[in-house]
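Appendix B. Raw example, untouched.
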Amino acid sequence: MVKRKNPPAKGTWAPPGGSVKLGETCFDAVKREVLEETGINVSPIRTMTHVDAIYKDGDSAIRYHYVILYIEAKYISGTPVPGDDAEDAGWFTLEELSNMKVEKETIRILTNSFHLL
């Protein structure tokens, strides 16, 4: 998990991620983004689910709209260190994450996808 350094979710813990570059596959983007944000090498396995993340401003106008793919990946190598647009990075249990600033939807997806609770 990484602690976001930039809006819209600044200060929130989330799985590493970012934009897909033109011509890049989603799986290639996962490998690149995880490495950039955490220093960890992964091998993507499958798409678990997707989420529409819509952030509104104080006037209820849509400020950001992201389509987020949650992709399961196999750990290959590396130690979590923050990089790129992350304030911090680390491994956490679901119990630990439930006491941190994490979107409820993220906890739900991780719990349902891995049947850990």
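End of appendix B.
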